[in-house]
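EI: anyone free to look at a 292-residue chain?
SC: sure, send it
EI:
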Amino acid sequence: MPKKRILFIVNPISGHRDKRRFREHVANVLGFESITYEIVFTERAGHATALAEEAVGVYDIVAAVGGDGTLNEVARGLVGTETALAVIPCGSGNGLARCLHIPLSTDKALHLLTQGHIERIDTGSVNGRLFLSVAGIGLDAQTAQDFAQDPRRGFLTYAHYAVSNYFHPKQETVSITFDERETLTCSPMLITFANSNQFGYNAVIAPHASLQDGLLDTCILERPPLVTIPDVVTKLMDGRLDKSRYLTERQAAHITVARPAAGVVNIDGEPVMMGAKLDVRIAPQNLRVLGA
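SC: here you go
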């Protein structure tokens, strides 16, 4: 049986875990397995995509070591190919890892490289920019921008900016069209296009979202009154946000959004500036992923 070939692409600055001992972790877990591997550390933005593109046809699996932003960069180089993406979660929220039931322990995630199975998942895009988990505008996009500019990582930092943006909302009236059949005009607190079910930190914005159904779940959340915030947050964290009166959901394969002006879009936790018009699409099962 030929040896499995794996390339590890490590983002040294994602999350709050020290990656300096990563080589030791890999040697301890995989040293006696029928695997050949190489470990490369990224040096700049976009480097992970270039490395992943070069790995296609050379490696069987490319393991992204970092958070959702790192996974996104690696996946951009692998979509539509037979080279599979593996997730070694070392970020802050680790939304895709949680949705795929990947262990957050580095050693346990490494064990999946020999024990897991490969499946195909959908990917989404906004104006041609790929996302794996979620994209969106409003409070989550502004929070992603604030979080990206702060050197502190972790849930408390993210929650701080989410609360701040609740009290200082930048709401706008937008028009959303679903599969060219239904149009809604609204001024919500946030709009999330969900391929997976959550932002990260187990904050489940789209309880019914599936990575394999060929649809995106659009979650439109009105700004709830302050007195109801504890109930809304509780529902968000225990996967029952669909029970909230402030959430409107639609499923579609193609969504267009017209907003008053250009602004920030949350792409897998990374803030990206885009134009006033957004074209959001699903690409069914075009990425191979190593799952639990």
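EI: The chain has two domains: 4-115, 129-285.
SC: 👍
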